[in-house]
Amino acid sequence: MKILCIGRNYADHIAELQNETPADPVIFAKPDTALLQRNQPFFLPDFSQDIHYEVELVLRICKNGKNIEEKFAPTYFDAIGLGIDFTARDLQSQLKSKGLPWELAKGFDGSAPISQEFKPVAEFADLKNIDFRLEVNGEVRQQGNSSLMLHDFSKIISYISRFITLKMGDLIFTGTPSGVGPVKIGDQLVGFIGEDKMFDLAVK
């Protein structure tokens, strides 16, 4: 399986990082070694002093596809979970300033915690109206809704599949709303879709 991620998909997050708004989805990847499951703790790496959380809805691909038309895209994912795209912001800034790829800032070990359970698509009344949030030490830090995405699930799947064949079991992180910030040892991160708790992990 592979982990594909969408950057700059919420206008308020683009504004808070002072980035340009892209015409097309921004795609990057994380290796499977980035996965963190079963509420395992996240250990701060020694190569960064500024690790940020970014909570995101995560699509689970259920069948193989390439050059998928948007109208057929909803048939290619069967469940939605929640994850965190941990980002080494200092390392990312250094690499971007040199015009270099920034995969190291996104794809390091443990940088992609995901919920153990994924909710079947059939349980959602409206895929364009999904509330989700991240609480850090009991305080809401990020709140988002899928209606605020610049590129919705169907556009994301269709666009990716023009370049990269999607396969059953692949995961797509769909972008983060505003409110990202640093984590420190001792923090407790709890993520929700609606009022359903999806993950609860400690930073060590």
UniProtKB/TrEMBL annotation:
* Keyword Flavoprotein annotated: no
Return the InterPro entries for the record.
Answer: Fumarylacetoacetase-like_C, Fumarylacetoacetase_C_sf
User: Looking at the record's lineage, which domain of life comes first?
Assistant: Bacteria
Which residue numbers delimit the Fumarylacetoacetase-like C-terminal domain? 2-188
Provide this UniProt record's keywords sorted from A to Z.
Hydrolase, Metal-binding
Q: Which Gene3D superfamilies match?
A: Fumarylacetoacetase-like, C-terminal domain (3.90.850.10)
Q: Name one GO molecular function term.
A: metal ion binding
Can the keyword Metal-binding be found in this entry's annotation?
Answer: yes
PANTHER family assigned to the protein according to its UniProt record, in alphabetical order: ACYLPYRUVASE (PTHR11820), ACYLPYRUVASE FAHD1, MITOCHONDRIAL (PTHR11820:SF7)
Put simply, this protein is called FAA hydrolase family protein
Organism field: Hymenobacter perfusus
